[in-house]
Amino acid sequence: MLIFKIQYYTKVIKITLDYICTMFSDAQWFFLNETDSTNNVIQQKLAQGHLPEGSVVVADYQSQGKGQRGSVWQSKPGENLLFSMVLYPTFLKPDSLFRLSKALALAAADFASNHCNGVQIKWPNDIYIDGKKTGGILLENTFRGSDIHASVAGLGINLNQDHFDELQSTATSLKMASGKQMNVRECAAELFTCLTHRYAQLRKGDFEILDHEYHSKLYRLNMKTQFKSNNQIFSGTIKGVNEQGLLMIDNGSEILNFEIKEVSFLNP
User: Fold this and answer.
1) Rounded to an integer, what distance in angstroms lies between the CA atom of residue 91 and that of residue 113?
2) Cβ-Cβ contacts under 8 Å for 258 (sequence gap 6 or more)
3) CB within 8 A of 224, min separation 6: which ones?
4) CB of 90 within 8 A of CB of 149?
């Protein structure tokens, strides 16, 4: 078990590790009051030289937080978990990188499930609680030739925010779902533990376990849902996600496979 002791100072956080698995024994932690994007900070540090695997950047506020499909991840200062980690999943083939996405999504779901019920994963890796978005993951990969070199995993999870402006009907937070005030720094340590566990499973080759658990939490699996693709609205039933990360939808006559930019959910 990974145990963090967190000591608070004025504007400074010191973390000492009682125990950490050797996998991330050299990991470095960077806590920032504000940045443009925690993923960008990791990328900049990588450009300057090697960064130990498992190293983490946490920020109180992002001015240009990034989401899937080029969207912007908006978060009120100091209320949520804005977290990026660097990984070197060189043991994965490029065509199996969705396994990493599944492991990350499960880790985020594990973390959320520690605090409330009704946690699901909306394809490909958004975190939902009772049908409302609570978190998201942006995975940015770099390659050397045709081989994977580094992955920067950015995770944004709503912790204490309770007002989302125009997204009020579709977003929620752990505080809203659990009724408890969350400590951002302690949550960062807890999420790191969950990520460590799921990444260890991935490195071990427990692909079937990860796939089974991912599908057990998949949002609207085997439920009739409305989608939009190529400006066309259609109804279908999600049958699962294949090894390449394509969403499989049964439209009543055939199984259609979609990449992330090819289809969107219509509420609910």
Assistant:
1) 29
2) 229, 246, 247, 249
3) 235, 236, 237
4) yes
Read off the pLDDT of residues 143-179 as tens digits, 9 standing for 90 and up. Answer: 999 999 999 999 999 999 998 877 778 899 999 999 9
Which position has the token pair 């991840």?
Answer: 73
| CA count, 13 A, side-chain hemisphere, 73 | 28
- Which residue is it, tokens 């949550």? 187
CB 154 within 8 A of CB 84: yes
What does pTM read for this prediction? 0.89
Domain 3-216: CATH class, spelled out: alpha beta
Q: Per CATH, which fold does 224-265 belong to?
A: SH3 type barrels. (2.30.30)
Domain boundaries, the chain: 3-216, 224-265
Cβ(252)–Cβ(267) below 8 Å:
no
- Across the beta sheet with 132-144, the strand order is 29-32, 56-59, 81-87, 147-157, 132-144, 126-129, 119-122
Measure the CA–CA gap between 46 and 44, rounded to whole angstroms: 5
- Written as one letter, the residue type at 118 is G
Nearest to 247 by CA among 263, 223, 232, 225: 263
Do 150 and 79 touch, CB atoms closer than 8 A? no
Q: Which two tokens stand for residue 250?
A: 């049964």
Encode 26-52: b = buried (16+ Cβ within 10 Å), e = exposed. Answer: ebebbbeeebebbbbbbbebbeeeebe
